[in-house]
Amino acid sequence: MHLIIATQRPSVDVITWLIKANVPSRIAFTVASLVDSRTILDKMWAEDLLGKWDMLYSPSWSIEPERMQWVLVETEEVESVVHHIKRTIDPAMLEDIYDKSIVEWESSNFDWSIVAWEYDEDPKILDEAIKVCREAWKASTSLLQRRLKLWYARAARVIDILEEMWIVWP
Q1: For 89-116, what is each residue's pLDDT tens digit?
Q2: How far is CA 46 from the centre of its chain?
Q3: C-beta separation of 23 from 3 below 8 A
Q4: Which of 65, 66, 74, 85 fits as disulfide partner to 58, beta carbons 3.0 to 4.6 Å?
Q5: What does the alpha-carbon distance between residue 14 and residue 16 come to, in Å, rounded to a whole number?
Q6: According to the model, what pLDDT value does residue 107 have?
Q7: Locate the FtsK gamma domain: which residues (predicted)?
């Protein structure tokens, strides 16, 4: 089981001692100050990282954080790979891959209660919204309004949640 907690600005009001005690392994990307670094890792050095590809990993079994670098893949690169695959792959094969992913998704029985609690949203609505978007191969506020009979504000909020979770893209 994994738990990912992300915040735009680390603060002791957000990352409390109780959270730190229950989440012993932590990752910090580049932060603005020594205080922010200590808030996340209880150590300095996250303020000296190089940029988007640089991070410090502090596992629960180690005293010192470990510096790691990861690959940044820009949106244009992803789009060019997807375009190449769409151009070169057999459409029947794409349908087969899509059908298998739908079966895997539906058989996974993902529990939306934690996500729904965090966003104060009904888990059934989130699950239904994902099914509607997958069936239609698109995601929009008006689509959810029509199919799930939601008011605009709630449908827009559901789309925002799905975008934030990277289930759909803007």
Answers
A1: 777 776 666 665 555 555 455 666 666 6
A2: 22
A3: yes
A4: 65
A5: 6
A6: 44
A7: 118-170
CB burial of residue 28 (10 Å; 0-12, 13-18, 19+): buried
Residue 139 belongs to a domain: yes
* Residue 149 confidence (pLDDT): 93
pLDDT for 26: 85
DSSP, collapsed to helix, strand or coil, labels residue 123 as: helix
Residue 24 · residue 60 · CB < 8 Å: yes
In a domain, 40, yes or no: yes
Q: Token pair for residue 96? A: 């087969």
Q: Looking at the domain assignment, is residue 9 inside a domain?
A: no
Element (H, E) at 116: helix 113-119
Residue 41 near residue 28, CB atoms below 8 Å: yes
Let me know the angle formed at the C-alpha of 56 by 65 and 31, rounded to the nearest 5 degrees: 125
- Give the domain CATH number at 143: 1.10.10.10
Q: What is the pLDDT of residue 144?
A: 94
> What residue numbers bound the domain in which 134 lies?
111-170
Q: What is the pLDDT of residues 20-63, one digit of tens each?
A: 888 888 888 888 888 888 888 888 888 888 877 788 888 888 88
> Per the domain annotation, does 37 fall within a domain?
yes
CA distance 77 to 54: 20
